[in-house]
Design brief:
CATH superfamily: Aromatic compound dioxygenase
Largest sheet: 5 strands, mixed
Distance between the termini: 54 Å
Strand content: 25-35%
Order of helices and strands: HEEEEEEEEHHEEEE
Shape: globular
CATH topology: Protocatechuate 3,4-Dioxygenase, subunit A
CATH architecture: Sandwich
Number of strands: 12
Structural class: alpha/beta
């Protein structure tokens, strides 16, 4: 009886170890949900497209609005970091206005805000932007879009991803048609909680893209 129990526990431990090894080698990350690019992707090249949107090159002042830091990693479906990916962001300024000729919003542009930035991920797949929380704006007469930042991630060998990042706690999130079209899990992956880190309001937005070859 003791020998049988000993064999049982030994086989159970071996089975558990094998399961842990199998799980560790088959890790997978959920692809970040694609969302509409929207009509205001930048069409005019800018003098300044660096990672700091708060100060525009040649502008005399910093942009209006609450400054935030958006950081994260670009990963593939196997949770491996993607080095050298181009991460673009574009957004409205504090008033909710895009720097785009087709934006009908009568709000004023901020001449000191950069509106559009680019980053290249490092060896660990990391990126970082400094920007401001954008204002909301009317998508239709009955629909106000919540503050959000548009993202586009591209690199050879991977499917290009266009998505949007939202701010946790914004009341307009609950009625946004684009955000609410996502599943609960997808929403969780694009709504970011911003917290003070070293006295800087910082949010972490990891992005997973699909490797195709």
């Amino acid at each position: 009886m003791k020998e049988s129990r000993r064999k049982f526990f030994k086989s159970s431990i071996l089975a558990g170890t094998s399961l842990l090894v199998a799980n560790s080698t088959s890790a997978s990350c959920i692809i970040t949900p694609a969302q509409t690019e929207g009509p205001f992707y930048p069409i005019d090249d800018q003098l300044d497209t660096d990672t700091d949107l708060v100060f525009r090159k040649g502008a005399p002042k910093k942009a209006k609005g609450k400054v935030v830091y958006v950081k994260g990693r670009v990963l593939d479906q196997n949770c491996e970091p993607v080095k050298g990916a181009l991460v673009e962001i574009w957004q409205a300024c504090e008033s909710g206005k895009y720097n785009h000729p087709n934006d009908p919003n009568p709000a004023k542009l901020d001449p000191n805000f950069q509106y559009w930035g680019k980053a290249i991920t490092n060896n660990k797949g990391q990126y970082l932007f400094r920007t401001i929380i954008p204002g909301s704006y009317p998508a239709t007469t009955s629909w106000l879009r919540p503050p959000h930042i548009h993202f586009k991630v591209s690199i050879r060998g991977y499917e290009e991803l266009v998505t949007q990042m939202y701010f946790k706690g914004e009341s307009l999130n609950q009625n946004d048609k684009i955000l609410q079209s996502l599943s609960d899990l997808e929403k969780k992956n694009v709504i970011v909680n911003f917290k003070k880190v070293n006295n800087k309001l910082t949010g972490k937005f990891d992005i997973t893209i699909n490797k195709i070859f």
